[in-house]
Amino acid sequence: MTTARELIVEADGGSRGNPGPAGYGAVVLDPVTGETLAEAAEYIGVATNNVAEYKGLVAGLTAARALFPDATVHVRMDSKLVVEQMSGRWKIKHPDMKPLAAEAGRVFPAGRVRYEWIPRELNKHADRLANEAMDAGKQGRQWEPSGSTAALDAVAARNAAALPPSGPPGDATAGAARARAALATRTSGVPAEAVTGSADVRGDGLFAAEEAGASSGDFEAEAGAAAPTGHAARVLAPTAPTAAVPAESSATAAAPAGSAAPRQGWSGPDMGAPATFVLLRHGETALTPEKRFSGSGGTDPELSAAGLRQAEAVAAALAARGTIQEIVSSPLTRCRQTAAAVAARLGLDVQVERGLRETDFGAWEGLTFGEVRERYPRDLDDWLASPKAAPTGGGESFAAVARRVAATRDRLTAAHAGRTVLLVTHVTPIKTLVRLALGAPPESLFKMELSAASISAVAYYADGNASVRLLNDTSHLR
Fold first, then answer.
1. What is the reported pTM?
2. Is 74 a catalytic residue?
């Protein structure tokens, strides 16, 4: 009789450039002991974070199913997007994300998989595997697990010997072989029956990444391409089977494994110094206190007297901190005036970047929300309901703004790696940068407060991940 059990799958993926060189990592864990049962990692060529994360999920689920086809699975990931989409709470709007989600959903019946978001620091095992795969790809080789094949086989043999006679059919060694076979078959086309013996399998085929990926959000599309690099997996035969564990106890039991210090011989990814963007919203204009739409398609107003005072105050605060190394500004007048005040204090030049301009609000420019509601009620409802809807009269949708801002972010991140750069821009670009860094849905744009002359900060790391460090700080204006 097969013993039912629960498995934990932790998965992660990353892209150094988003899109850029990408890879994933996944690990299958015993929820009671925290023991590693299987590992998988692959360099997938040029792709986005979302593509890599989904592929890591598929690889982890595949390994879990090969070990115990009847298991229930507790998936833990630090990708809010993947967790919420696979849980059914967020819609999968981007057409190129749907096949990846569908592939993951076919591995196990939906009722046997539950998803949990965890902080990145609790997902270090999968993150490390993903970075090892990307490092290997950068060196033109395939990922190889640490430890010799002989050592892994010895572990499998010891664990298999410890199994009681009443263990499930196929025992641990066969379960490990099934996992190796399933993972190898995905990449090299080797029949499952042909994979036996070693606990270390390296496929030399392609794991196609032809799908287009989303760039940190589910309505942005950027193509991902496969690279001719193989996939590798390590499977450790589990110890004696354990009974299924209730959800509450399994989560508690697994926590120490996720938060423990790295094992001897392993180390975390060396991400280096991040590119840190200090995001400064411009000072007030005459339109700001009246809460009127003021984008890139309007009158391009100057700073008001209050806005000029705010610019001087934020300039003094940034000069006192002494961390800004470069200044980049939107081309609109209110931002250039704010940037000039800071530049004069810091003795820096101002670079102008068109990608940082505000949304074009079309016919809504200069109007209040109430006036737009009165004149264009249907268009306003559509705009509030969908990021793809544009303001009346040829305005710019939030989806279009997000694509523009993401492309600008990627250019600036590549150009200013390891430096702290002040970006003087507007409400929508700043909220979009924060949203994309958090992996939050488009509707979160309406839930962030962003005052005039406020400061926010996001750090972008070499592995493609980001950290929001500050949001809407106005302490320098008091």
1. 0.48
2. no
